[in-house]
Amino acid sequence: MWTRCRQTMAVLPILTQESPILRQKAKRVPRVDSSIRKLIDDMVDTMVAAPGVGLAAPQVGVGLRVVVIKTDTNLHTLINPEMVKWEGEQIGLEGCLSIPGYVGEVKRYMQVVARGLNRHGKSVKIKGDALLARAIQHEIDHIDGILFTDRLTSLETLRKVEPQDQEKEAELVGA
Question: Which neighbouring-strand residues pair with 122?
Answer without folding.
Answer: none
